[in-house]
Amino acid sequence: LSSVPLQILLYVNGFYYVFYFLATLAMIVYKSQVFSYPDDFLAPDLALLCVMAALEALRLYLALRFLRGSKGNLTEEEAPLGLSLVVTVGSVILSVYFLTWQTYVLRADVILNAVLLFTYGLESVLQVLAIAAFVG
């Protein structure tokens, strides 16, 4: 009953998020040097990026730990996947912040966040299907 596509997508998203974090951090540094980035907004943007990284680590830990589990792909527990879905909501909100509400939004921000939101949506659908399979 374990979802192999979900597990693969979670692994890929883990690598993509490292790229996303580094690219977003580099863009914030770039924007702070090139544009007149208000000092009052620089620290909150960096703090929110760090909060998002912590949420992403927790989300992936919950989802992957119980999909993989100590017995390989045999642990089929719905509670950790459900918690991962709840944490995904926070990650989605922060991604939308970086997509629309941060001080300066570059085209690269739009592309990075669109890909991230797409993977969050696809993961969520696969997690709901996996939970349904585990329960049913």
Automatic annotation (TrEMBL):
GO terms for biological process: non-motile cilium assembly. The gene is Tmem80. InterPro entries: Uncharacterised_TM-17. Its main location: other. The chain crosses the membrane at residues 6-30, 42-61, 81-99, 111-135. This is TMM80 protein. It is found in: Cell projection, Cilium; Membrane. It comes from the Eukaryota. GO terms for cellular component: ciliary transition zone; membrane. Keywords: Cell projection, Membrane, Transmembrane, Transmembrane helix. It is a multi-pass membrane protein.
